Amino acid sequence: MRFGATILDAEGLRLTTEEKALFRDVNPFGFILFARNVESADQVRALCADFREAVDRDCLITIDQEGGRVQRLRQPLAREWLPPLEHVERAGAAAERAMYLRYRLIAHELHDLGIDSNCAPMADLAQAETHPFLRNRCYGSNTEVVAGLARATAQAHLDGGVLPVLKHIPGHGRATQDSHYDLPHVTLDAKTLDQSDFEAFRQLNDLPMGMTAHLVYNAIDAAPATLSPVVMDLIRNQIGFDGLIMTDDISMKALSGSLTDLSQSALAAGCDVILHCNGSFAERAETARAAGEMSEIAQERAERALAMRQTPQPLDTDAADAELSALMGGQVYDG
User: Is 248 assigned a catalytic role?
Assistant: First the structure.
């Protein structure tokens, strides 16, 4: 049986009987956690076990644990990190090693709780005009530098037994609006985009999973990237990314239409999995039923991604903390 073509969330700290029945029925590829799902280490582990029991397999469980503003796990369960851009700037010439250590420690924290994926790295290029919702979550503005830092971040996750999700393909850094609320339009010409924003993702096209961007590239297509067969073809053939592609949250206000129409349009455009977050139970059920099962090629990509999960390499967390502190002059954590 193929996986359901969705990644879904839960309302609270443990699954309800209703949620268990839905997940058993629609068999989502995986799940995503939010702060509302987090109370204690034992509770998070129990919730992860609930998810896996509901679908009767060792399914993927992901989270947004970038550090800084976008960090679902907080003290005492996890270190409090500086925003990624500030982390990179403070590390200076040692930024690649500092980013590796940062995310190796994050992966260690996640894996210990039963979470085996993280929605990072980001290869979006920070611009002067980048909307504040995104800008300090980026790693820099230079294509080569950002690709190198994203590569170090991805490897740190893999070494820690956690699958990275590259975002936001094919590049969100030119957006001047917050796609949680509005649909950004990028007016830059296609050639410049290809040589800058798209190139960063091209250098990372071997990673197992990626997440789309909800924005319009005016020079390429009038439809939002997530819903655009033209942009999805560009991602697959021009950028060369053949990993599993999930949408950004399909319920974000950048996209308009019913969840059924949006889910089916994203899959028809070429996305493999629909990510649905922060909706009602009925909305989760609607999305899952509209998405149905994965296509044959999506299933292949999903199985290939899952095969990249590995037993974490040994990590001396005290030594990693000490090295990171030395690289950054003692200014590692937020607070």
Answer: yes
d(CA 107, CA 118) in angstroms, rounded, equals 8
**pLDDT tens digits for range 189-199:** 999 999 999 99
- Predicted structure pTM score: 0.97
Domain boundaries along the sequence of the chain: 4-14+35-327
**Which CATH superfamily includes the segment(s) 4-14+35-327?**
Glycoside hydrolase, family 3, N-terminal domain (3.20.20.300)
Length of the chain: 335
Could you read off the pLDDT of 30-57 as tens digits, one per residue? 999 999 999 999 999 999 999 999 999 9
DSSP tag of 33 = E
Catalytic residue among 180, 194, 242, 334: 180
Q: How far is CA 23 from CA 7, 30, 50, 61, 245, in A?
A: 10, 10, 10, 13, 21
Active-site residue identified among 248, 249, 272, 276: 248
pLDDT digits (tens, 9 = 90+) for 67-99: 999 999 999 999 999 999 999 999 999 999 999
